[in-house]
């Protein structure tokens, strides 16, 4: 059905922001400081999209609560304040957001990033005003729980068929599939295309620019109630 999406929900890291290298470098630095084994780049990147604590536990399942807390603290400090690894939005990100906003569509973020980290990067990029609502594990639960998506739908008073999730990881695809929300897969991020397609996305794109025309033809100005 065309013109059905009144809300487009984006993942952040790996979807709009090309931050994979910085995340992995920060994970590896935090592991070294916490005296954990430093895992390979490919292994480390697989957890991008999860909440920080859940990601650490996925990489180090035998870690104690104290060790997880220490590594999380080290990671946050490295990522936000110390890392020299550059990161920037993917090509076409701001144009896409501007176009969707001009069409009257509600824009939201559902991310595994911390509230502090998301707010900081949105402010630094001057992207804050593009988004009507953002959700992190601080207000909800880590992916693949669909709670972030459910909260966004509730806030806008929309049915699940009136929103679409855009992401680059299986966690994004799974959270949307659990509640029957359409999902668009982007292959320029963390997880392989074959993995993403196993979750039956409505479309798969290699970059934001090729997705833009397809998505714009399927959105509708928001007519529901305002965000609570």
Q: Would you count the extended β strands for me?
A: 8
At CATH level 2, the architecture of the largest domain is 3-Layer(aba) Sandwich
- The N- and C-terminal alpha carbons lie at a distance of 28 Å
Q: Which secondary-structure class do the elements indicate? A: alpha/beta
How much helicity do the residues have?
40-55%
Question: Count the helices. How many?
Answer: 10
CATH homologous superfamily name of the largest domain?
Answer: HAD superfamily/HAD-like
Indicate the CATH class of the largest domain. Alpha Beta
Q: Please tell me the overall pLDDT.
A: 93
Rg on CA atoms, Å:
17 Å
Keywords:
single chain, 228 residues, alpha/beta, Rossmann fold, DNA polymerase, domain 1, 2 domains, six-stranded parallel beta sheet, two-stranded antiparallel ribbon, 10 helices, 43% helix, 13% strand
Provide a descriptive summary of the structure in words.
The chain has 228 residues and is α/β, with parallel strands linked by helices. The protein has two domains: 7-18 and 88-216, 3-Layer(aba) Sandwich (Rossmann fold); 20-82, DNA polymerase, domain 1 (Orthogonal Bundle). The protein is 43% helix and 13% strand. It contains ten helices and eight strands. The chain has helices spanning 20-33, 41-45, 52-59, 65-82, 93-102, 115-125, 147-156, 170-178, 193-197, 208-216, and strands spanning 7-10, 17-18, 88-89, 106-110, 133-135, 163-167, 182-186, 203-205. The strands form two sheets. The protein has a six-stranded parallel sheet with strand order 5-4-1-6-7-8, sandwiched between helices. α1 (20-33) packs across α4 and α3 (52-59) packs across α4 (65-82). The protein is globular and about 50 Å long. The model has no long low-confidence stretch (mean pLDDT 93).
């Amino acid at each position: 059905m065309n013109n059905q999406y009144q809300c487009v929900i984006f993942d952040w890291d790996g979807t709009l922001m090309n931050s994979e290298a910085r995340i992995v470098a920060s994970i590896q630095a935090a592991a070294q400081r916490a005296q954990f084994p430093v895992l390979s780049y490919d292994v480390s990147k697989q957890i991008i999209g999860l909440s920080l604590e859940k990601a650490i536990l996925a990489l180090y399942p035998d870690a104690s609560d104290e060790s997880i807390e220490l590594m999380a603290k080290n990671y946050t400090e490295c990522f936000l304040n110390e890392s020299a690894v550059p990161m920037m939005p993917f090509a076409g990100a701001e144009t896409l957001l501007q176009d969707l906003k001009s069409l009257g569509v509600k824009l939201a973020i559902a991310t595994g990033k911390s509230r502090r980290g998301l707010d900081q990067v949105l402010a630094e990029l001057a992207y804050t005003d593009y988004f009507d609502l953002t959700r992190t594990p601080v207000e909800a639960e880590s992916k693949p729980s669909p709670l972030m998506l459910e909260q966004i739908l509730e806030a806008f008073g929309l049915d699940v068929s009136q929103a679409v999730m855009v992401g680059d990881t299986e966690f994004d695809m799974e959270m949307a599939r659990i509640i029957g929300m359409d999902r668009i897969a982007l292959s320029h991020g963390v997880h392989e295309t074959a993995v993403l397609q196993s979750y039956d996305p409505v479309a798969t794109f290699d970059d934001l620019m090729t997705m833009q025309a397809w998505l714009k033809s399927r959105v509708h100005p928001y007519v529901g109630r305002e965000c609570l």
